[in-house]
């Protein structure tokens, strides 16, 4: 399902298998704990019913669907959800149960006609709090960040999946595959970075050639990356796949005063 792809370009499923080898394990610590999040425009209510089951209510709808919960830093949780009745959509939520800060990233696969020249998978960024009382939240408010600009890293997802990332600007990053099915392939795609806390970032990207987007939590204290991909396979099926990597910092570009990336 790659559009205008060079010859030999891989589909989503060609590289997704095994890319979760170095992912942190799921946690059952939130099972049985009702959670309420105040997000722009609507409250999100979650009830983690089991290791991969969540009851939810959001934007006038409710249901019981698949989820996965991972503790990505002390008291910081990465929650990923899909929706059986809305198969083109997924939701990723990061929150800290101590500071009560939250950041939700809904993603949606659009038709080629709707997307036009943009990547087919769109993302939103919703900053909120755990609980209705925003004054109870403390610490840094999640916000768009330029902190990664100029950084070059290796992302080792497995012994067979190694990628290089270069964070070019506030809206774009470059990648190339050093080891794996996509070896020799690379591109520049749209990206968004939010700082969540000190040394913690949410990194997302939206690819042009393959209809896929990703949401990753970067913990630079432990040099671990935890995330997911939402995309369309070569057969036209929507898939939501887990991923995780060890981060190795290679270098950082330092720009002269007055000459900075956008």
From TrEMBL:
InterPro entries in the cross-refs: MoaF_C, MoaF_N
Domain Molybdenum cofactor biosynthesis protein F N-terminal, chain residue ranges per copy: 8-109
Domain of life from the UniProt record: Bacteria
Limits of the MoaF C-terminal domain: 143-252
Protein's recorded name: Molybdenum cofactor biosynthesis F family protein
């Amino acid at each position: 399902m790659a559009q205008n792809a060079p010859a030999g370009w891989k589909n989503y499923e060609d590289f997704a298998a095994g890319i979760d080898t170095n992912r942190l394990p799921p946690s059952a610590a939130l099972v049985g704990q009702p959670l309420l999040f105040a997000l722009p425009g609507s409250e999100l209510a979650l009830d983690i019913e089991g290791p991969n089951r969540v009851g939810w209510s959001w934007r006038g709808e409710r249901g019981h669907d698949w989820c996965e919960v991972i503790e990505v830093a002390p008291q910081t949780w990465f929650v990923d959800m899909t929706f059986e009745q809305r198969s083109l959509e997924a939701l990723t939520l990061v929150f800290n149960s101590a500071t009560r800060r939250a950041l939700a990233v809904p993603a949606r696969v659009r038709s080629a006609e709707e997307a036009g020249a943009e990547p087919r998978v769109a993302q939103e960024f919703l900053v909120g709090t755990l609980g209705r009382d925003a004054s109870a939240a403390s610490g840094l408010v999640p916000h768009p960040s330029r902190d990664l600009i100029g950084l070059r890293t290796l992302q080792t997802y497995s012994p067979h999946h190694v990628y290089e990332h270069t964070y070019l600007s506030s809206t774009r990053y470059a990648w190339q595959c050093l080891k794996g099915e996509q070896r020799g392939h690379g591109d520049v795609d749209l990206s968004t970075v939010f700082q969540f806390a000190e040394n913690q970032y949410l990194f997302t990207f939206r690819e042009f050639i393959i209809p896929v987007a990703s949401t990753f939590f970067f913990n630079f204290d432990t040099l671990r990356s935890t995330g997911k991909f939402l995309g369309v396979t070569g057969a036209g099926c929507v898939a939501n796949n887990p991923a995780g990597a060890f981060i190795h910092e290679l270098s950082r570009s330092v720009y002269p005063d007055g000459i900075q990336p956008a």
